Amino acid sequence: MLGKFFQKPDKEQGERVPPGQHLAKGFPVLTYGATPQVNIEEWEFRVWGSAKPAVFTWSEFMALPQHEFTADFHCVTRWSKLDVKWTGVKVTDFMKLIELEPETAHVMEHCYGDYTTNIAIEDFVREENFFAVQLFGEPLPAEHGGPLRLVVPHLYAWKSAKWINGLEFLKKEELGFWERNGYHRRGEPWAEERYSGRF
Hints:
Blueprint: H1 2-5, E1 6-7, H2 11-14, E2 22-24, E3 44-49, E4 54-57, H3 58-62, E5 67-75, E6 79-90, H4 91-95, E7 106-111, E8 116-120, H5 121-124, E9 130-135, E10 138-139, E11 149-151, E12 164-170, H6 177-180
Parallel strand pairs: 2-6, 3-12
Antiparallel strand pairs: 1-2, 3-4, 5-6, 6-9, 7-8, 7-12, 9-10, 9-11
């Protein structure tokens, strides 16, 4: 398996690959459950919780400034892909439209297909995070989270929720799907925060 689908990083790449990871030769697709097929005309993105409620259509979201990003991608299942090229909207640009209540400290990412994952607000609003709409210059495929996914390069990829369609802002931490099922609350690759230790 290692030689066919994965390879060990060379010395130069090794500084970019977290402990316990191998480099993927392709871009693996790992999904729990069916892949949602989302109609752009019906797509909407909701904000609620400890924030002023808001709803964005696809055209409204796409009207935000778009940028190109190159980021390394690390999956908790022990593979990494370097220099993934995306196009999308910076989280920091999107957050300029959102009014948060005082003491907001966490975010629950909600997705088509009812997947959820939690993230601390300080991890969410980092400058390098973005909502991706293209992958390697093409519209983001459904299997990789299209039409829209969050990308949080500094955490394991389950925090980069596919098919994202809403953000619930919270004053106290709540756990998402994988976090309730034994994954680490934060998921930092360089610390190998894979699992919670609760099971």
